[in-house]
């Protein structure tokens, strides 16, 4: 399967996408660590309160009030262009499944934004989303991809905002949200992976016990040497 068309599709649409792209990229890297540190502090110190400010939540919802039907594709394409290991994963997965995954990402983001005021709901939605990635492991999926995806989300959403807010504020809001999202995504993924491994282990143990019981049963039913001579 060929994926050269993916790069050509991206090139054909880049001209109209550079509104604030260079600024967004620069500010994303500068503020990401700061916002994640602030997020962790807020989450630990402000029990019962939201780790993202009300203004930040408003910015997030305002971004998604703009047309964003291809947001999942744009995010994945940005990662595809920068990571050879992600490219190998996409080739192994196949174009159709990859495009379907980009749609699932868009739908997931829609659900998160619609529940942005509810931390518990975001965590639950994110855990479920993370669980869905366990079957992709056989194609070469790595949890480390989420680091690049989180960065791409922040950049694309600053572009999506179209300078309606200060880029620094937009980057801060989305970086804090992605920190919350991907913490729970990883939790869901690793919990499902552990559950899968435990299930396989239990199945192997059951098969082993059945084999031992079957062998023991055959040995018990077989006549002894003495019995053979007596007969």
From TrEMBL:
GO molecular function: heme binding; oxygen binding
Domain of life: Eukaryota
Ranges that cross the membrane: none
Annotated Basic and acidic residues bias: 1-20
Annotated stretches, region: Disordered: 1-27
CDD domains: Mb-like
Residues in Globin domain copies: 51-190
Name of the protein this chain belongs to: GLOBIN domain-containing protein
């Amino acid at each position: 399967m060929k994926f050269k068309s993916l790069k050509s599709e991206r090139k054909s649409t880049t001209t109209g996408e550079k509104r604030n792209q260079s600024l967004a990229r620069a500010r994303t890297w500068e503020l990401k660590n700061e916002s994640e540190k602030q997020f962790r502090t807020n989450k630990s110190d402000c029990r019962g309160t939201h780790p993202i400010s009300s203004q930040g939540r408003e910015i997030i919802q305002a971004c998604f009030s703009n047309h964003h039907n291809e947001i999942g594709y744009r995010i994945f394409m940005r990662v595809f262009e920068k990571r050879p290991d992600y490219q190998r994963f996409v080739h192994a997965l196949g174009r159709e499944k990859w495009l379907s995954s980009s749609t699932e990402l868009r739908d997931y983001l829609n659900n998160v934004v619609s529940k942005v005021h509810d931390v518990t709901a975001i965590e639950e939605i994110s855990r479920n989303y993370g669980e869905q990635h366990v079957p992709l492991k056989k194609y070469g999926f790595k949890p480390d991809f989420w680091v690049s995806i989180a960065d791409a989300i922040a950049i694309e959403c600053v572009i999506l905002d179209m300078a309606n807010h200060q880029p620094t504020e937009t980057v801060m809001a989305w970086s804090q949200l992605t920190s919350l999202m991907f913490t729970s995504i990883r939790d869901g993924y690793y919990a499902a992976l552990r559950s899968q491994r435990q299930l396989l282990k239990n199945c192997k143990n059951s098969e082993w016990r059945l084999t031992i019981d079957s062998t023991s049963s055959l040995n018990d039913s077989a006549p002894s040497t003495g019995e053979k001579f007596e007969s």
